[in-house]
Each structure stands twice: as C-alpha cells, then as structure tokens.
C-alpha cells in the first residue's frame, strides 16, 4: 500500500508558541491522482504545505513524501506558492533555467524544455523578455513552468488560479489534467470549488487545523443536503406533508406571479418520492427542479460549523 502513495501524513501537528496551527492531521494521496486541499483562510493549509516541503518540521507526527522524508524528496517536488515571486529583470527563459538548475537539471536540458513549454503556453515570442515586461498572467505562466520544468513526481499548487482570466484558468486546468495523465501527483489548494469539482478525484478539508473530511467528491457531496425547487400555488403545509421534505421556504414569485418554493430534503432522501406524492395528490406543481449538492455546498456544511 505504501508504494502506491505519493504523500502520507500520520498524526501531524504544528505549534508556534501557544498557537496550534495543525492538529493531529492524517491523510493520504495516491500516486497519479489529483487531490484538492481545501479549507477557509487560517485552516492550516500553508503550515501543512511547508512541512510537506521540509521547510519546517512537525511538532508531532510523521510525513512521508514519495517514499522518503522531508528534504530528501525535494528535487522530485514542484511547488507553486500563492505569493508569486520571480527575478523581474531576468529573461523568462533564464529564470526557468536557473530554477531548474536548483533542482539538478542540466542547463542545456532545462533550456530545451523551457523553450518547448513557453511555446506551448503561447509565450514563444516572449522567451527573451524580462519578467517585468510581462503581464500578470504571462508571469504566472512562467512561474508555473518553473515549477514543472524538472518533471516533478509530486506537484503542489497553492491557489494556482488566483489572478488568472477564465481562458488562462481553463488552460491551467488542462495542464493539471495532463500532469495526472503522465503519472504525476497533484495536490492543490483553492478557494474556488468549481475548479476542485472539475479536477479532483479526492479532497481533504481542514478547518482550525483539523481535518473535517477526506474522501471522494461523491462522498463529500453526500454530506450536504439536496434541494427541490417548486413553482406552483402551494401552501407550506402542502409541501411539508410530502415524504422526505425537511423544510420549505417561499422565495418569491415567477414572471407569471406564481409562488416559488425552496425545499430542503431530509438526509438520504431523493426528490423522486416527494414529486410522486405531489402529483398523486394533484397539487399545483407547474415546474420543478431537483438540485444535487455541489462541492461548494459540501464545503460550507463540512467546514462551516467548525469555522463559525
């Protein structure tokens, strides 16, 4: 089992004086998968990433990265920090070659890979441009290439979509999928649940330094309630009498002046039985929509109570 894992944390804690940033954290990331590392600000994500990278040591517990410990695996890791920073006066290709050299890649190999990757990202005309002359999106692409040029086995991305326009966000999603297809493992944190929902096989959620969830997207969504949207001349009593309905709130009127209702289903219940009963009772249901919970809904439920 251990050989299938790119990353394993076992009972990891981190304290800074009297403050406990991470508390008894355990989770695993399988090789070749894309794992979302999610949590509100101050949840302990950055402290955890610093320990994974060997930049700080856990106060307790054990971290295993690519079968090794801490800095011994560092050259096999690619890291894109949330706070971007490149040498502004250096040329784009020179920055990439320099940072690749720190990971043990020969300059000739790094220069060839850098040129190929810059061209693939639409930056072929800017290979010899200084970083300070590039747009924010362009410089973020250069930094991303810098963290991938040494062909890492584990890629850690901290808020990688921050500041990117929708087109570049889509391009980055494509890069992340390609990394996984090529066998690399990706761990990334983001506040934008739509990205995690489109990309991840599994997610880990933290709040106040503690893990509140680890599992698949399907398992995460199951923690959030399902909803049924109804349009019709209905009373709250009519709706609450339907099987599986937990609550019903009138939210307004349709364009035709017909009441709109937002109904929360009881845990484990689907909309099917409620709708079937409504039609059998000849209730005035003119339109309905069963809404499955999103990862955002699950995130609010799983982290909300602890975060409050």
Automatic annotation (TrEMBL):
Record GO terms (molecular function): ATP binding; ATP hydrolysis activity
Family: Belongs to the ABC transporter superfamily.
Residue span(s) of domain ABC transporter: 7-233
Name under which the protein is recorded: ABC transporter family protein
Classification via Gene3D superfamilies: P-loop containing nucleotide triphosphate hydrolases
Transmembrane segments: none
Keyword entries, A-Z: ATP-binding, Nodulation, Nucleotide-binding, Transport
Keyword Cell division in annotation: no
InterPro entries registered for this protein in UniProt: AAA+_ATPase, ABC_transporter-like_ATP-bd, ABC_transporter-like_CS, ABC_transporter_ATP-binding, DrrA1/2-like_C, P-loop_NTPase
